[in-house]
Amino acid sequence: MKRYGARVKERDGFDVIELTDRLTDSLAEIAPEFGCNLYRFECRSKQVLVPPPLLSAFRDEEFDKFRYGTPILFPPNRVKDGRIAYRGKEYRLPLNEPTNHLHGELSSRPWEVIDLGESEKEGAYVTARFQYSSHPDILAYFPHPLTFTVTIRLYEGRLAMGGTIKNEGGEEAPFAFGLHPYFSLPFGNGEEIVLRVPAAEEWPVTDQAFVTGEPSKTAFSGRLRSGVPISDYPRLGCSLLSLDDSGDRTCRIELKESGYTIAYRLGPEFPYVLLFRPDWASAYSLEPYTYVTDAFNLPYAYERTGARGIAPGEEIEFSTCMWVE
């Protein structure tokens, strides 16, 4: 019998992609119709990601497209007043909060599946694509035909999510990209949960993750390297960190009594990670970002905040990987 499987299946009345690895008892499900959301991952009989109660919630509930699985973000987090100023141009993004633009539109629109398969050498995988050129309403406020291509691959019990963003247009565009995985954790049952992150500095932020000052080495960022208990991390609390770029960039969430660890490795294109605990699910997010929240509107050098552009014809790669230890 084959080790790996990749197929289209029906879930809650919608077509989803299912990837399986029999030897590690691993399963991933992706919803192309709802932002190519990697909304389910189970590995070694452990639930790693928190799925929505029903897939229809991605369609019917206004903010649920941001609240489960792994939303893909462009730009990540909030843009104050929906305004971005870059290279002498001003962009006005639609407001989906009273005074902010939140998380972009990639997570709420259908993606096109362009490849699906499995083999002993490559594991089980799916590749999907989203093109701004197919969405005139997005181009009306962000006139840059970007193409996002994402491959999700299950191989030897590890789930890799990576891809490229390419500027198909003739002008440089502001660039800000991120992911928002919701890792399933048993908060409230007495479990000791310890988080380890290769943090370098911590940014002071509001409860909406807006930056209020420059980063520094704090007691929290220092302790994260060896491990910080997060069982009592406040609901709707958040912390913004710059990562150490000199070594292993794997974050780990250890569940002491349950005897396993969720590992999440980030590629070097993500210099920042936002920690966040929602109040609508028993979950904790480690959100890799290419920039700090609302970086284009901060009074700091772009090199400090990650604000940057993507040039005509430029292609930016990204990579992540999650697994259970």
UniProtKB/TrEMBL annotation:
Organism the protein comes from: Cohnella boryungensis
Record InterPro entries: Aldose_1/G6P_1-epimerase (IPR008183), Gal_mutarotase_sf_dom (IPR011013), GH-type_carb-bd (IPR014718)
Protein name: Aldose 1-epimerase
Pfam families attached to this UniProt entry: Aldose_epim (PF01263)
